[in-house]
Amino acid sequence: MTDTPAHGAPLPALHATAARRRSAGIYGTIVASAVLAAGGSHLRTVALAVAVLVTLLVYWAAEGYAELLGEHAHSGRLPSWSHVRASLAGIWPMVTASYVPLASLLVVRVLGADTRTAATVALVVAIALLLVQGWVAGKAAQLRGVRLLAVTLIAGAFGVMMILLKLFVTH
Fold first, then answer.
1. pLDDT greater than 50 at residue 3
2. What pTM value is reported for the model?
3. Could you give the CA distance from residue 108 to residue 19 in angstroms, rounded to a whole number?
4. Please, are residues 60 and 96 in contact by the beta-carbon 8 Å criterion?
5. Could you write out the three-class secondary structure of the chain?
6. Buried b / exposed e across 59-76, counting CB within 10 Å, b at 16+?
């Protein structure tokens, strides 16, 4: 019996990739929440959605660049294009994590709410998403009980902080 699945990747590499994708998703949800909080009462709906996506694309590219530079600067060699693509794909959930909050922003707006209200709903959805992401990460770390509850609530607290930011910025 081996620790290598059928497709050949060792299990530790698979776990590291999954953990990296989970952390990128949490980070992306937090960044999306920050943009929603900061721009929700100042931008029109489409501009707000574009601002979220563009901000996340910049963060995604910057994170990928910094990571690749950190990995390869000591060797004096640039990474191969396949390594660059794989590395960027590994953190793509940073961008895709915004899709559910952005969909809620647009749906609520289409249903007749103003942008400010739609942004608040999107923030609440982001908190729910952060709670799910925290719980999934905790389960992946084999946490149970109070420890699982703690990591779940900490993830959600980041979203609550964005709601507080929104209240502070808009009042």
1. no
2. 0.86
3. 32
4. no
5. CCCCCCCCCCHHHHHHHHHHHHHHHHHHHHHHHHHHHHHCCCCCHHHHHHHHHHHHHHHHHHHHHHHHHHHHHHHCCCCCHHHHHHHHHHCCHHHHCCHHHHHHHHHHHHCCCCHHHHHHHHHHHHHHHHHHHHHHHHHHCCCCHHHHHHHHHHHHHHHHHHHHHHHHHHC
6. bbeebbeeebeeeeeeee
What is the structure's pLDDT at 4? 46
Q: What is the mean pLDDT of residues 24-32?
A: 95
CA–CA distance, 69 with 83 (Å, rounded to integer): 12
Q: Which residue has the tokens 């574009």?
A: 50
